[in-house]
Design goal:
Elements lengths: L34 H12 L4 E6 L6 H8 L6 E4 L7 H13 L8 H13 L7 E5 L5 H17 L3 E6 L1 H5 L3 H4 L4 E4 L5 H13 L10 H11 L3 H17 L23 H11 L7 H5 L21 H12 L13 H6 L22 H14 L8 H4 L12 H18 L1 H7 L8 E2 L5 H5 L3 H12 L7 H7 L3 H13 L3 E6 L2 E6 L1 H9 L8
Parallel strand pairs: 1-4, 1-5, 2-3, 3-4
Antiparallel strand pairs: 6-7, 7-8
Helix pairs in contact: 1-21, 3-4, 9-10
Length: about 525
């Protein structure tokens, strides 16, 4: 009977992110729980501090993954993981010579060692990384091979790392272990590190945020005790099992069969007669056609709907005024003397009651001065409106009830409202767009004038994605996380880096525009 496993509650995945094979160069973001060792060795490489280290861990503890991820820091790497069948010492030296010097290997072993020491001593930049990773070799035989090579390895200006399993370490003599400068032991992962490992792996193949639930985390810790290899394998099997089960749709669509058509028995002729009897008949009246057509009154327009918003009250008052006959001026005759005197060339006219005087509104300078002073003291941000737009002389003040005057007033108020919100709309332009990736147009001038620290950040971004919390990059630049975050944000605004959200962390990488520009300058090679 198969064991029941807790449900991970995974989002949609492109593929299963948990693979038992070791990590490769460029996948250092998946390296969990090894930050201290990785940062220390990266500092040795960049400071050209030669070290002879011994790395001990169980099978599946991530020894090979740690060394391959560390190879991102240097240009010259020698990682030998295939144990020679015969003549072990000479084969290992030949492999090192071909990787560090050239393929024209001397026949003398002493000459090989001399050229290796010379090539590693008089170089520039980080020192080489030499890793001897023979996990399948016999512990006693491996100790004899390293004993013959240790004198040559100690002379090289490089970081030399020899890996051992716990079983191989039991067969090594203490005197040989004491020749190493550092002995590093890989420990198991804690609960937080296992949860982070699962979250980063799932986030690499899914766009949805996901976090491992407590039940699944306890189950994995009970089965693996935090051993990296076993954690990866059990999560791989749990993901395969969960993906193999069909997902339940949120809503089930029920398709009902169509109801069959049932014939109603009966006399069809009687049914047709009943239907025809109910259909009204039409007869043409010729006398009605000879009469003159009657004039129909114009159809009454429905009252306009009361709008909502800032102008609903103004529209309502105008509709009431237009519907009230007492408020409407009498329709004058075309031959009225007042119309002839006050008529305009454009066809409009001004109606005035008999005996009424034209009222003109004027603006006094002292009133305007008081308005300016009050606005300056209160600090109101509402834009100032010219007096010519508010106070008009003569007949324009008596056309407020006209449709044209109403429309002009509404447009004027709408323009004031739009101007008042202009600052809010401009400030909203600075807010970043929420999405998978955030990038800006490239600034070639900034790319041409990078500082030394920024140049290193761009170099790392061209090889892999990183976050401001990357301890190896912080040690290489000798900066803290806030300073590295400032540098990344500055390069992002210049269009050199782009950022992508992965869970709770931000991952920066080189933009396509910056990569194309560096390729055009001959600083990068076109990736195949």
């Amino acid at each position: 009977m198969a064991e029941e496993r807790p449900i991970l509650g995974l989002p949609l995945l492109k593929e299963n992110p948990f693979q038992a094979r070791p990590l490769e160069a460029g996948q250092s973001s998946f390296l969990i729980g090894r930050d201290a060792i990785s940062a220390r060795w990266a500092r040795f490489l960049h400071q050209r501090a030669a070290r002879f280290s011994l790395l001990i861990g169980e099978r599946g503890s991530g020894r090979t993954s740690l060394l391959r991820c560390l190879s991102e820091e240097v240009d010259k790497v020698v990682h030998i993981d295939m144990y020679p069948e015969a003549n072990h010492t000479r084969c290992i030296l030949d492999e090192m010579y071909a990787a560090l010097v050239d393929f024209d290997i001397p026949s003398s072993r002493q000459q090989i060692v001399h050229r290796l020491v010379e090539s590693t001593t008089y170089g520039e930049g980080p020192i080489p990384l030499i890793a001897l990773d023979f996990s399948s070799a016999d512990g006693k035989g491996l100790s004899e091979v390293i004993s013959r090579l240790i004198s040559a390895l100690e002379r090289m200006q490089a970081l030399v790392v020899v890996t051992l399993t716990t079983d191989q370490r039991l067969e090594w003599p203490e005197g040989l272990v004491g020749r190493f400068d550092h002995v590093e032991k890989l420990s198991t992962l804690s609960e937080d590190e296992v949860s982070t490992l699962a979250q980063k792996r799932v986030g690499s193949v899914s766009r949805q945020a996901w976090e491992m639930n407590r039940e699944a985390l306890d189950y994995v810790m009970d089965k693996t005790n935090g051993q990296v290899g076993r954690v990866i394998r059990i999560l791989r099997d749990m993901v395969d099992e969960e993906r193999s089960k069909p997902r339940k749709l949120p809503q089930e669509v029920i398709i009902r069969p169509a109801e069959p058509i049932v014939d109603i028995p009966g006399d069809e002729e009687e049914q047709l007669e009943d239907v025809s009897a109910k259909i009204p008949t039409f007869e043409l009246d010729m006398e009605m056609m000879d009469r003159e057509p009657m004039a129909l009154p114009p159809p009454a327009l429905p009252p306009p709907a009361v709008g909502s918003g800032a102008f609903s009250g103004l529209i309502g008052r105008n509709r009431i005024n237009r519907s009230d006959e007492s408020m409407q001026p009498p329709t004058p005759s075309l031959y009225d003397e007042d119309v002839r005197n006050n008529g305009r060339k454009d066809g409009t006219h001004l109606w005035m009651a008999k005996g009424a005087d034209l009222i003109e509104q004027t603006i006094h300078e002292d009133v305007l001065d008081e308005q300016f002073t009050s606005e300056e003291e209160t600090g109101d941000d509402e834009p100032f409106i010219d007096s010519a737009e508010i106070y008009e002389e003569g007949p324009s003040n008596h056309q407020s009830s006209d449709d044209g005057g109403l429309i002009q007033e509404m447009l004027h108020l709408m323009s004031r409202a739009s101007k008042a919100r202009l600052s809010e709309m401009l400030s909203a332009l600075r807010q970043p767009v929420v999405g998978d990736k955030i990038s800006f147009p490239i600034d070639v001038n900034t790319l041409r004038n990078l500082s030394k620290v920024e140049s290193i950040v761009v170099e790392v971004a061209s090889e892999r994605s990183f976050s401001p919390s990357d301890s190896r990059l912080q040690d290489r630049l000798d900066v803290k996380r806030p300073r590295l975050s400032q540098i990344c944000n500055h390069l992002q605004r210049a269009g050199i880096l782009e950022v992508r959200q992965e869970g709770r962390s931000r991952k920066f990488s080189l933009t396509n525009d910056a990569r194309a520009q560096l390729i055009a300058w001959g600083m990068l090679e076109v990736s195949q």
